[in-house]
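Appendix B. One record, verbatim.
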Amino acid sequence: MIKVLIVDDIPETRDHLSRLLGVEREIDVAGTAGSGEEAIQVAMDLRPDIIVMDINMPGMDCIAASEIIAQRLPSTAIIMMSVHGEAEQLKQAMLAGAREFLVKPFSADEFSTSIKRVHERERGRRAPASASGDGATPAVADSSSGEVENHQVIAVFSPKGGAGRTTLATNLALALRKETGQRVALVDANLQFGDVGVLLNLNPKNRSMLDAVEGGEPDRDIVE
């Protein structure tokens, strides 16, 4: 059972979101909170698997609350939601540790699918750490320098087209590069119709992965 905490300053919204998950056998809405401060306290008491939190709340905002929760409860994943889907909000949410970003309104299926996907992803992410016995996040060794690097993967997802995923992902990647100074890899998983290159004003020399698959046996010009 996936234990979920719902955080929103509007009581009617909390009730509505709880009802959306009411028919899900795998999900248990363990509690609700109406502010960032209350979210921290309830999270510490319930220790939920997932916290679904609105990004715009009075008092302590969602970003500050998420950062505190991420420090105190690293095994709890956070999904942020908002009626807006601006790149700046998405960047703030991801930097604060959110695993997904939902734009209101969303359906019951979209809501439950997001929670299950994040929970499954977190289970898979924690499994290697548990196997190592130290509970730490797995690190990757840089073969060129011998140094150990930690990497973060951020997925921008929507179950329907036209939601602005490509624009959000592109602007987020550029903002992260500018703000952190770190190398950022931007991958468009829409293998056939991906247009990240268009937004970045790039003219790729090579064909896409889908072209390689459909073309049969690859040659040296495709595989580099």
